[in-house]
Amino acid sequence: MAVEEQKEPLLEKHYYENCPGCKVEKLKESRKGLPIRELVSIWIVVLCTTLPISSLFPFLYFMVRDFHIAKREEDIGYYAGYIGSSFMFGRALTSVFWGIVADRYGRKPVIIIGIIAVVIFNTLFGLSVNFWMAIAMRFLLGSLNGLLGPIKAYATEIFREEYQALGVTAVSTAWGIGLIVGPAVGGYLAQPAEKFPSIFSKESVFGRFPYFLPCLAISLFALETLHMHHGSSEPDESREDVENASLESSTKYKTQKVEGKAPKKSLIQNWPLMSSIIVYCIFSLHDMAYTEIFSLWAVSPRRYGGLSYTTEDVGTVLAISGAGLLIFQTFLYPYVDRLLGPVVVARISGVLSIPLLSSYPFIAVLTGLGLSTVLNCASVAKIVLSTSIITSLFLLQNKAVDQNQRGAANGIAMTAMSLFKAAGPAGGGAIFSWAQKRQDAAFLPGDQMVFFILNVVEAIGVLMTFKPFLVERRD
Q: I need a labelling partner for 211 at 20 to 30 A (CA). Which of 80, 89, 136, 350 fits?
């Protein structure tokens, strides 16, 4: 009996007044179904922050050309890489700061500041008149856009354990869709005076600034997202508790709950967290380089091994890829994750990506319907595999830390990932320009070298998913 009396308090959960974490835990216990409203909120906010990241890639080649900074056509990719990487470089400098702010003052302020940054600086990027203004606007957009880490933490905190995979899938799916729909929007709406002369004249603001319309469209979406998030007519107390949860209140609750417990472990010494972040960075480097290289390769002339696509053609391919990704991540990924586990999913996806990428230089020799069919199938498969890897690593990262450290942990992940993603476009653009100058090389001529290097990075990532490097947290 004495043993049972001692065990009872350990099995019983105690909740404290004015503790946001307690209210969220009570809500999760009482709510048996899937929280659809929170799922939609997460999806929209992540989409809002992701759309500007890659929306520029379909028209970046032409934007740099119009700046007249590249002396030769083969050098355009080199300068495009710097513009593409400036966003991630800015985010790398501030991600830890925003993670700490989210833990201490709540998720909501960080989310609102991030959305406001999209509204202002993405609009100004579309009005860029030279190379340096474009870099400055992208850098400021990245520096003030720190909401991805807090929203990832929110996604794991609001869902019951059986739905956590779906919650994190919502983040990664919206992220993947944003990386696809963003370029689709950029491809369709760039240069509107040339595509739709009956609607937009060359003397109008959209004729003088041919890349303003896609940026404006995304900024208006962000503005509407801000209005929805800030002005909801039905306030949800539980959601407010999570958004406004602070490190101080959570720490106070933990101290009351278990007095005398050992201090929390340093995040840097948490190897399950750090190993998953490092692997995540390798795959992020690959994905960002691929995103830029794909668009540059598609719009570059056939004499350089490209497809001679227009921005609209690229937008169509990426829109189809986005639809395929949405179907897979919504209906299939949660079952695959439960069946195989996140580590095995990441490994299999990485291995399958290597032969797929190897086929890209040979796709360029096709024409007509054959080219369109094969390219769309390859693009859908690649984005599904890449997003499956990122989703799996999201899950591993958030399971590796307690709730009160998730904002800071995601801040560290965002900083490291942003550094690697900053290197992706810069390195990818430089390699692409170099490859276009070696069309007659004996070893891996032209774009074959580009996709070979992408495969090397992918293979390194796959090898790092094995023990003893990647370790899962065991409770």
A: 89
Instruction: Please give the pLDDT value at position 54.
Output: 80
Percent of the chain at pLDDT above 90?
25
Q: Do residues 320 and 381 make contact, with C-beta atoms less than 8 angstroms apart?
A: no
pLDDT at residue 6, rounded to an integer: 45
Residue 254 tokens, joined? 């933990």
Closest CA to 115 of 47, 31, 30: 47
Please give the Cα distance from 183 to 161 (Å, whole number). 34
pLDDT band per the 50, 70, 90 thresholds, residue 396: confident
- Positions of E strands within 255-393: none
Q: Is 249 in contact with 21 (CB distance < 8 Å)?
A: yes
- pLDDT (0 to 100) of residue 9: 46
**What phi, psi does 270 have (nearest 5°)?**
-85, 95
Extract the runs of DSSP E, i.e. beta strands, from 170-271: none
> Which of 356, 150, 385 lies closest to 246 in space, CA to CA?
150
Decide if 418 contacts 142 (C-beta within 8 A): yes
Position 265 pLDDT exceeds 70: no
Handedness of CA 219, 322, 285, 437 (dihedral sign): negative
**pLDDT, average across residues 377-387:** 92
Say how far apart CA 206 and CA 213 lie, in whole Å: 6
